[in-house]
Design goal:
about 160 residues, alpha+beta, Ubiquitin-like (UB roll), DNA polymerase, domain 1, five-stranded mixed β-sheet, 6 helices, about 35% helix
Length: about 160
């Protein structure tokens, strides 16, 4: 038995029939073809699947597609303005806040959530705000620097 869902992803409405048990991350990746959110653990431990749903960062590997029915979702592909990079994406590039890139989309979405609620976080607050996201390549130093740079850029745009 399938269930109809209507989910707006990056401004585009997607009406699909889905299995009631289909995870949102699989809907995003396999049904609509956006591969920025990654499946890293299926237990919400790594954060590679983090997306924004109705304005709040959520882990899409533990959210069902049917739970997102009627929701508005932003993935890493929809975070930046057309033809450019979001300040967080730019800062991760500038400060070498990524290595293999697997965790980067989820890390950027989580950092975006952090800066939404705390526009000027300290390094300790950044580390705490990103606790739900794991990077297996870096020591997090450059990730913290990237979030600090983005905070200064975003704060200066107000």
């Amino acid at each position: 038995m399938k269930v109809s869902v209507e989910i707006t992803v990056n401004g585009k409405v997607h009406c699909q029939d889905v299995e009631p048990r289909q995870l949102l991350v699989h809907f995003i990746r396999d049904t609509i073809g956006l591969t920025g959110a990654k499946v890293g653990c299926d237990t919400s431990q790594c954060g590679a699947c983090t997306i924004i749903m109705d304005g709040v960062a959520v882990k899409s590997c533990t959210t069902l597609a049917v739970q997102a029915d009627g929701a508005s979702i932003t993935t890493i592909e929809g975070l930046a303005p057309k033809g450019g990079l979001h300040p967080l994406q730019e800062a991760f590039w500038n400060k070498h806040g990524l290595q293999c890139g697997f965790c980067t989309p989820g890390m950027i979405i989580a950092a975006n959530e952090l800066l939404r609620v705390n526009p000027a976080p300290s390094p300790e607050e950044i580390r705490h705000g990103l606790e739900g996201n794991m990077c297996r390549c870096t020591g997090y130093v450059n990730i913290v620097r990237a979030v600090q740079e983005a905070a200064s850029v975003i704060g200066g745009q107000s």
